[in-house]
Amino acid sequence: MKTCSKCKQEKDELEFYRMGDGRRPSCKTCDRAYQGTWQRRNPDKARKYNSKWHRENWLEIQKRKRFSRYGITELGPRCEVCGSESRLCADHDHTTGKFRGTLCNKCNSVLGLANDSIDTLLKLIEYLRDK
């Protein structure tokens, strides 16, 4: 048990955010209330800080989204269609939400624009061969 430095309530240690090797002096509830107040009082600073933080942590954010959505922690090393190693993303079935594989942004966009329709993609191939 630990006492919050702000609300003075005794709470379980899990009610405090981790900081270094220990826990913050104030509880999560008090920290969130303070953050909300600070952000409302300092909207420009908050926006600037949040923007910088998202830029610096973009890869970690994407990794957490993939895990929560598809249950995967890592993507393959390259696109499974064209072999590109840049701008990789998680391709998924829009009906089931199930992860299908690793594609680059371009290949994933092609599938999305074709609404994952095999018929449309085959017609596009036919079109390219005929022209």
Would you mind describing this structure in some detail?
This protein has 131 residues and is an alpha+beta fold. The chain has 2 domains: 1-41, no CATH class; 73-131, His-Me finger endonucleases (His-Me finger endonuclease fold). The chain is built from 5 helices and 6 strands; from the N terminus they run E-E-E-E-H-H-H-E-E-H-H. A two-stranded antiparallel ribbon has the order 1-2. Strands 3-4 form a two-stranded antiparallel ribbon. It has a two-stranded antiparallel ribbon with strand order 5-6. Helix 1 (28-41) crosses helix 2 (43-56). The termini are far apart. 8% of the residues are buried.
Task: Furnish the topology, listing elements before pairings.
Layout (H helix, E strand, L loop, with lengths): L1 E2 L6 E2 L6 E2 L2 E2 L4 H14 L1 H14 L1 H13 L17 E5 L6 E6 H9 L4 H13 L1
Antiparallel strand pairs: 1-2, 3-4, 5-6
> What structural class do you assign from the helix and strand content?
alpha+beta
Regions with pLDDT < 50 over 5+ consecutive residues?
none
Strand tally, please?
A: 6
Q: How large is the count of helical segments?
A: 5
Throw out a few tags for this protein.
His-Me finger endonuclease fold; 2 domains; 6 strands; 5 helices; single chain; alpha+beta
Tell me briefly what this model is:
The chain is about 50% helix and about 15% strand.
